[in-house]
């Protein structure tokens, strides 16, 4: 592994620890078996997942966007991870619900049935636990 690749890998790992609090197993698997691919992903993720002023969007908004895109892509794990992170950062249940309606409008009711409803339920539970 080149020094540039090692630095990119470390940037990706550090980004996960900073935003998710851990390095997810599925990305460790990618790192173990396709380190160059993870290095590219890690650079992109570390550049994107920065709080203002380095990033243009605040982290709550970035997490919400990822959650909604994951619902659209039927990625339950990603949607739950990003949705919960957004709630921790101050996203409200009404804000999430409105975003999910937008996903239904673009992707159809199947997005709701496959992932959206589960995401909303999990975030309602998390928000209620905070209060």
Summarize the topology.
Blueprint: H1 3-19, H2 25-33, H3 35-48, H4 59-72, H5 76-88, H6 93-107, H7 109-130
Helix pairs in contact: 1-3, 2-3, 4-5, 4-6, 4-7, 5-7, 6-7
Give a structural overview.
- The protein has 131 residues and is mainly α.
- The chain has 2 domains: 3-48, no CATH class; 59-130, AhpD-like, CATH 1.20.1290.10.
- The chain is 79% helix and 0% strand.
- The protein has helices spanning 3-19, 25-33, 35-48, 59-72, 76-88, 93-107, 109-130.
- α4 packs antiparallel against α5, α4 packs parallel to α6 (93-107) and α4 (59-72) runs antiparallel to α7.
- The longest helix has 22 residues, at 109-130.
- The protein is globular, with a radius of gyration of 16 Å.
The first-to-last residue Cα distance is: 47 Å
Uncertain parts = none
Main structural class? mainly alpha
Number of domains: 2
Corresponding CATH superfamily of the largest domain: AhpD-like
Question: What is the average of the pLDDT values?
Answer: 96
As a whole number of angstroms, the C-alpha radius of gyration is 16 Å
| Level-2 CATH architecture of the largest domain | Up-down Bundle
So what's the overall shape?
globular
Give the total of beta strands.
0
The arrangement of helices and strands along the chain is HHHHHHH
Beta-strand fraction estimate:
under 5%
Mind summarizing the main beta sheet?
none
**How much helical structure, as a percent, in the residues?**
over 70%
Count of separate DSSP helical elements: 7
Name of the CATH class of the largest domain: Mainly Alpha
Here the CATH topology of the largest domain equals AhpD-like
